[in-house]
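**User:** I keep going back and forth on a fold encoding question. It is easy to fool oneself when nobody else works the same problem. Could you pick a protein and write out its sequence and tokenised fold? Could you put it straight underneath, so I can go through it closely?

**Assistant:**
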Amino acid sequence: MKQIPLNKKNSKMQVIVRKNPVEKIYRLSIGLVMLLLLSMLLLSCADKNKEVTESALQSNTEVSKKIKEKNSAAQNYEIVPNDKVCMVNDRFMGVTQIPIEANGTTYYGCCENCVEKLQKNLGDVRFGVNPLNDSKVDKASAIIVQDKNSGSVFYFISKEDAQTFINKNKA
């Protein structure tokens, strides 16, 4: 402690107490350590409950995953409208494509590059292959089936062929 006179006229002394800063840091450190230990204790109790909850959720998730896999296999393929397929890229686009006339038949493409390819039939692009029997199919008159996972499409001569393909790929 140090005594400091307030002013020279007043002879009374006032005592000012200055605490040691090291002592403050020591007390603060002890408080932080106590808080940390208490937090760890509370979290360790919470972790036990969390483990039980997580294992229950995990088993529920696995069951629902298996159900979804069975349902998705059945719903993985669907017949889609021809005008929403780019017949050059063989992809389902989800929106109406550019109609392209070629020899009196309407095909669909997604961009200006597709126009020339379809009109000139570059690379025999107007035709697809039926995956059931490898026969050639005119894309303009085909029944088109989309693979929902990849967005790619398959061309079929008839709805029966398309449905056979969908049913075959359910399992």
Q: What stands out?
A: The mean pLDDT is 81. The helical segments are 21-74, 112-120, 159-168. The longest strand covers residues 98-102. The CA atoms of residues 34 and 61 lie 39 Å apart.
